[in-house]
Amino acid sequence: MTPAAAFFKDLTLPTMPDVAHELIRSLNEDDVPLDQLRDVISRDPALAVQLLRLANSAHYGNHSRVGTIDDAIARVGTGQVRALALASFFNDAFPIAPGLDRETFWRESQSYGGLTQWLASGTGSDCQQAWLTGFMARVGELLMGLKVPGCVIEFEKQPQYPGARWEREMAMLGFTEGQVSAELARAWNFPDDMVSALDAAANPMAAQPFSRLGAVLHVAELLAATPTPSFAAVDDLPADVLAALDVDADWMRSRLPQAQRYMEASRLH
């Protein structure tokens, strides 16, 4: 049993609702029928209200108001529907540890998901699965804080340079937030690719077999540690990980404006 698995073993986890389970299973479906999504969302009135609020928000422009779930799904897209449902579940299910601000934590998690999706779009990984994996990568930090009071304050202390949180987690507990998130994903029967990626996120070059999505997570987290993706941040990325992904720094620099758009789109307005 790995250190992260031993740590995770005695944690009491929230029950994942059927709606979230069904949406996660739909990640592996390229074209989910609209009526299937509607039926899933209709079983959760609170989620249906949130979806309608999102569809009528200023983020989607000055369109006429929508009043049905079908129209709301059509306006925001199936990817955002999944994002809304899963973000709502995670936000409600996990208490925020001392040392973290709830709104900031989940906003950063959504941006991390957006960066992961952006990189996945150019490196051959599944974009929707990448968003969810990036979004939940830091949930392990919340679980660490539940079991070891005060540890998050140590993880989050300044200066917070790229990769610092992983280093502090390893030094204090012997494993990283991603490895704890991997155990959560395994317990909830998430796709194996997601479990492997989360486990490998802090050190993708050590993973056997190599996890492409894990390397994407690693790069996304390093970029997310800067206020906005920048040329300087790209210059500091590990060359061996970029080589394993078969991307180069010039390619990434040319796509940085697109990265910002993915991050903004990932945030649920």
Layout of secondary structure:
Elements: H1 3-9, H2 18-25, H3 34-42, H4 45-55, H5 69-76, H6 78-93, H7 102-123, H8 127-136, H9 139-147, H10 151-155, H11 164-173, H12 177-187, H13 192-200, H14 212-224, H15 231-235, H16 239-245, H17 249-266
Mean pLDDT across all amino acids: 88
The rounded distance between the terminal residues' Cα atoms is: 41 Å
Let me know the largest β-sheet. Answer: none
Morphology: globular
Q: Which class best fits the helix and strand makeup?
A: mainly alpha
H-E string: HHHHHHHHHHHHHHHHH
- Work out the helix count: 17
If you compute it from the alpha carbons, what radius of gyration comes out, rounded to the nearest whole angstrom?
Answer: 18 Å
The portion of residues assigned to helices is 55-70%
**Strand percentage, roughly?**
under 5%
Total E-strand runs: 0
Poorly predicted regions: none
